[in-house]
Design brief:
Layout (H helix, E strand, L loop, with lengths): L3 E2 L10 E6 L11 E16 L7 H12 L3 E10 L5 H19 L6 E8 L6 H14 L4 H10 L8 E9 L2 E10 L12 E6 L5 H11 L18 E6 L13 H23 L7 E9 L2 H13 L1 H8 L5 H9 L11 E6 L2 E7 L2 E2 L4 H8 L3 E7 L5 E8 L3 H8 L4
Parallel strand pairs: 4-5, 8-9, 10-14
Antiparallel strand pairs: 1-6, 2-3, 3-4, 3-9, 6-7, 7-8, 10-15, 11-12, 11-14, 12-13
């Protein structure tokens, strides 16, 4: 299998166009609306927030992904989440889709929508509809257009997150493009983050859905910035079939190749979200090995990543392994704390910090040096079985509180 990373993003696959424009939905002097458009109808799959409080665009997209015969466009705005907005919020989703459909010559049922930002505020529909018109006029098939779109969906993100790869399917070059946003209120259980994938592959809706729902468990659902599951979490994948490859079917090498490409994209983008957590200085990874079951491994890794005390210790470069042990202990997974090991790792340096129920006699200076790196890895060897899992998060800094204390202002 060979996955080739190329220069590009959401508009890289054949037949996909994108744009990002200024619509002044909430922000001034920055791009805040984006479009993804396919020249041909697409099959689509999606996973969405498990939060009982679901934003209007999540409800709209869930219905379309489930019931619409095809989709062909996505309109996204930042600044206002269109969550907690009642019937009016749903009507605004429909008006947005109607406007885009009218301008693109497609049914409103083929237009997905996305929103991210402040909860409880109503969308300024005059600006939204004007923004849709700008997007339709600006969309194009280019790397720069994809980059503009990825920047337009940012809120408190410090960097845009885009990616494109190519794979070989039965001698045909197939491309996948992606863009994501998310920096705070990140604790996806899907399966405020938004993720989009486009591909020109020929694949059925059923196969696309199976791949996405299986993969999200070990990628986006294994990250956390602050433990808050957004009302707007959405991950969508659209396939227009314009590459012309033989249909990708389950049980074939081509299926595994495509599945691996989706996993590569999701894991890469998920880690970028975790590393760009609000105020973060470091990406923190917890790799659990030799757990009793896959589910235990996931539970243990996520528990460490979600521990505020562990996150604060990484920020302070404090090798306080007691916080990690505590997080493992309250996770709900069973293990023997007298028969396990903990390690810190960064770059090419790795040290043992805890073994067989006690301090392993490590150097505090060496541990602090590891914890001061931009990417820090915590390894937990449970000595319970043969299963492993990885979770990603970030350190907890003063800036996280500053950002969220005045988020609405």
């Amino acid at each position: 299998m060979s996955i080739n990373v190329i220069n590009g993003g959401i508009a890289s696959p054949i037949g996909f166009q994108a744009a990002g424009v200024e619509a002044a939905v909430k922000y001034q002097n920055r791009k805040d609306m984006a479009i993804i458009y396919s020249e041909q109808p697409c099959v689509a799959a999606g996973t969405f927030t498990s939060n009982v409080v679901k934003a209007a665009p999540v409800k709209w997209d869930m219905k379309l992904v489930e019931e619409s015969p095809f989709v062909q466009a996505v309109i996204v705005n930042t600044g206002i989440a269109n969550a907690g907005t009642g019937r009016e919020g749903m009507e605004f989703c429909e008006k947005t889709a109607e406007k885009a459909g009218e301008l693109l010559g497609i049914p409103k049922e083929a237009v997905l929508v996305g929103s991210t930002g402040v909860i409880g505020a109503q969308l300024p529909m005059d600006r939204i509809l004007a923004g849709v018109e700008k997007l339709v006029n600006a969309k194009e098939h280019s790397v720069s257009a994809g980059t503009d779109a990825s920047k337009a969906i940012m809120t408190t993100d410090t960097v845009n997150k885009e990616l494109a790869v190519t794979i070989d399917i039965a001698g045909v070059n197939v491309t996948l493009g992606a863009m994501s946003k998310g920096s705070g209120m990140i604790h996806p259980n899907m399966c405020t983050m938004l993720g989009y994938i486009t591909t020109d592959a020929v694949i059925s809706k059923e196969a696309l859905t199976a791949i996405l729902k299986e993969d999200v468990v070990d990628t986006y659902n294994m990250i956390s910035v602050d433990g808050d599951t957004s009302t707007n979490d959405t991950l969508l994948i659209m396939a227009n079939g314009m590459a012309g490859n033989p249909e990708i079917k389950p049980g074939t090498p081509e299926y595994e190749e495509f599945k691996a490409a989706v996993h590569f994209i999701n894991e890469t983008q998920a880690k970028r979200l975790a590393g760009d957590g609000e105020g973060a200085k470091a990406l923190v990874e917890c790799h659990v090995i030799n757990a009793a079951s896959k589910e235990d491994a996931r539970t243990l890794a996520k528990s460490v990543i979600c521990s505020s005390l562990t996150k604060a210790a990484v920020f302070g470069h404090d090798a306080n392994w007691g916080r990690i042990l505590c997080a493992l202990g309250y996770s709900g997974a069973k293990f023997d704390p007298e028969d396990m090991e903990l390690y810190y790792e960064a770059a090419d340096k790795k040290i043992l910090i805890y073994k067989n129920g006690m301090d392993a006699g490590y150097s505090e200076e060496e541990a602090a040096e590891i914890l001061s790196q931009p990417e820090v890895r915590i390894i937990a060897d449970m000595h319970m079985g043969d299963f492993e899992a990885t979770a990603w998060g970030c350190d907890l800094t003063y800036d996280y509180v500053k950002i969220n204390a005045d988020y609405r202002s």
